[in-house]
Amino acid sequence: MDWKSAKILLASTATVVVASQVVKKLCNYYSNSRKNTRPEDASDDVNNDVLNIRNREINDVILFSDDVVRHTIRVPPNKDVTICESRELNCFKLIKYIKSARETLDVCMYLITSSEIAEQIIRLGQRHVLVRIVVDSDMSNTPPSQINKLKEYSFIQVQTSKKSILMHHKFCIIDGPKAIKRKNVLKACAEKLNIHAQFAKYNVKSQIKAKPCKGFVMSGSLNWSTQAMVSNHESVIVTSHTNIVNKFEKEFESLWIEDEPALLAAL
């Protein structure tokens, strides 16, 4: 083999090696890209975000406005309040707060017409979150109210306000301490009635107790309706301040009619 042929052979070999390395890197790149964009990974990101909501102090203000402005202000004692004024982002943020419920969701709402929020409530119930809803009696059956749809699910408790005055509240309590206590009492009563639960006690003891989740309240001018979120100027305050959560729980309990004697006695 002459020198010229050798040079051609070496050049060809080098080209093949370089090309194979480039192809390998491209394959690795696209493979990693797909892994990073897998639905389960995206879901993990959302779950981590939700976990942060459950375990932190919340002082948030959601403003449904025509202006797309987001900024943070500091209020005493050294707490940040996020002002958020993008409608699309606010809808996502509102639902994210609702989805963060781990144990209980108590809703006191004049009107619920948003099918997206209704779907999230149903999914919470399917995850064994105890859901109670109080709505105004006049608005509960007015189309496009979602109340009749929610009533179809046995794990969602719905009551219409029996008060003579208008029930115009717009708030919800997520993982409130009194509501969680009520859920535990219900669970204990159910276990007493269930003979099979006696044989499963050793499993209960072996389970790792979940960290307590801090309850919070969302309250403001916003009805859970598409009209309000898309077209109106509305505001929602979100806070985990203990005193405020307790006051809203007290108000909810004054409207909720408990019809289970064993539960009433335990509470």
Task: Map the helices and strands.
Blueprint: H1 3-36, H2 39-54, E1 59-64, E2 70-75, E3 79-84, H3 87-99, E4 104-109, H4 115-126, E5 130-135, H5 147-151, E6 156-160, E7 170-174, H6 177-193, H7 201-206, E8 216-220, H8 226-231, E9 234-239, H9 242-255, H10 261-266
Parallel strand pairs: 1-3, 4-5, 5-6
Antiparallel strand pairs: 1-9, 2-3, 4-7, 7-8, 8-9
Keywords: Hydrolase, Lipid degradation, Lipid metabolism
Protein name: Mitochondrial cardiolipin hydrolase
Family: Belongs to the phospholipase D family. MitoPLD/Zucchini subfamily.
What brief labels describe this structure?
267 residues, alpha/beta, Endonuclease, Chain A, 48% helix, 19% strand, globular
In short:
This protein is α/β, with parallel strands linked by helices.
Descriptive account of the structure:
The protein is α/β, with parallel strands linked by helices and 267 residues long. The chain has one domain (46-195, 213-255): Endonuclease, Chain A. The protein has helices spanning 3-36, 39-54, 87-99, 115-126, 147-151, 177-193, 201-206, 226-231, 242-255, 261-266; strands at 59-64, 70-75, 79-84, 104-109, 130-135, 156-160, 170-174, 216-220, 234-239. It has a nine-stranded mixed beta sheet with strand order 2-3-1-9-8-7-4-5-6, with helices on both faces. Strand 5, helix 5 (147-151) and strand 6 form a beta-alpha-beta unit. It is globular, with a radius of gyration of 27 Å.
